[in-house]
Design goal:
Blueprint lengths: L6 H11 L20 E3 L16 E3 L2 H9 L10 H18 L5
Antiparallel strand pairs: 1-2
The chain binds zinc ion.
Length: 103
Amino acid sequence: MARKTGELDLFKEIWAERPHICKECGCHLGYMLAPHFFSHYISKGSEPALRLDKENIDLLCFKHHHQWDHGDRKKMKIYDEDRIAQLKLKAHKQRTTYGYQSE
Ligand SMILES: [Zn+2]
């Protein structure tokens, strides 16, 4: 049985709040929400605690989401060591506060 992740609800909130623009190239993403527009800045695999954290989710076009996940992300404009450090720190705090176990 598939476990409800809550991701789609979160995506809907973000879609309602933010301009529908790729954070990397500025292209317009259209009006229809598609899950592939939502990119986890720090992957779910490395920080499960940030999976449903809006600060960890960027709107990206398909091309740049793919580049972020599978290509050379360090060449991208949105790559930011400080942001990565901040998010990792946040995840660490959540783990120590709530005893969140990474899988
Ligand atoms: Zn783009």
